[in-house]
Amino acid sequence: MREGARSSREASAFRRPLALTVAGSDSGGGAGIQADLKTFQELGVYGMSVVTAVTAQNSLGVQRVDNVSPDMVGAQLESVLSDIGTDAVKTGMLPATAHVEASARSFARHRVKRLVVDPVGAASDGSRLMDGGAFEAMKRLLLPMAEVVTPNLPEACRLLGVHSGDIRTMTDMERLAKRLLALGSRHVFLKGGHWSGEEAVDVFVSAERPGETKRFAGPRYPTPHTHGTGCTTASAIAALLAKGALPEEACREAKAFVAAAISEAFALGEGTGSLWHGAFAEKRRFLR
């Protein structure tokens, strides 16, 4: 039986891969559970969601956040995992320590194996999405459970207590990624989107080969419309893991998925626009 309580019905009736997002809702549709569910669908995975917070959010930023109670987060997790189960889980916004603790208990109880942790401390406009206690609880409880952790440079520096100004070269990035492994996850995908240059270069390291690093390079598209990039990256990795990809393969393919989505990003409202999550499949159909 897979993670959760998948019944014998699955043998004959329902064989699609399943992925669950545990994250906040973005009313503007570009990030959070909305971006995650779009990504799951585009990658051929059945998506489910546990809502941790409801935001009033648009292209200009986050205007209001109402947290869902930790008990309700736990109830949603129990409802989904005890009946349907999942092949992978992606976590995003976990506003307070109690939300992290409720998630960790459910993941342990239902033996979730393919956990992707996006350590999203703040929204792209700078709005704080996790308080300090929640961030530390995520570091302590969820990272040791994680198959892959997907920080950007500021998040990685916060996890390690490093000043981002001290990370100046790709060699520094690789050292940072290796240090992140010591926090307990089996793989680290350190995103390089905050760097300048013609290419966007991410770093992948694995506890299976701790002395080895991989660089994933791709084009950097000249667009300001990148809302939801971090959520989309993590959920794409989760979807690909749910389909049976190995972590390095999942991270490489997720990067291609996100690059395509950024290449077709568009203006939305008066501020930062959104990715186009359908671009990856559309480009593949065109190439055929």
UniProtKB/TrEMBL annotation:
InterPro entries: HMP/HMP-P_kinase_dom, PM/HMP-P_kinase-1, Ribokinase-like. Gene3D superfamilies: 3.40.1190.20. Pathway: Cofactor biosynthesis; thiamine diphosphate biosynthesis; 4-amino-2-methyl-5-diphosphomethylpyrimidine from 5-amino-1-(5-phospho-D-ribosyl)imidazole: step 2/3; Cofactor biosynthesis; thiamine diphosphate biosynthesis; 4-amino-2-methyl-5-diphosphomethylpyrimidine from 5-amino-1-(5-phospho-D-ribosyl)imidazole: step 3/3. It comes from the Bacteria. NCBIfam families: HMP-P_kinase. GO terms for biological process: thiamine biosynthetic process. It catalyses: 4-amino-5-hydroxymethyl-2-methylpyrimidine + ATP = 4-amino-2-methyl-5-(phosphooxymethyl)pyrimidine + ADP + H(+); 4-amino-2-methyl-5-(phosphooxymethyl)pyrimidine + ATP = 4-amino-2-methyl-5-(diphosphooxymethyl)pyrimidine + ADP. PANTHER family: HYDROXYMETHYLPYRIMIDINE_PHOSPHOMETHYLPYRIMIDINE KINASE THI20-RELATED (PTHR20858:SF17), PHOSPHOMETHYLPYRIMIDINE KINASE (PTHR20858). Keywords: ATP-binding, Kinase, Nucleotide-binding, Thiamine biosynthesis, Transferase. Pfam families: Phos_pyr_kin (PF08543). It comes from Cohnella phaseoli. Belongs to the ThiD family. This is Hydroxymethylpyrimidine/phosphomethylpyrimidine kinase.
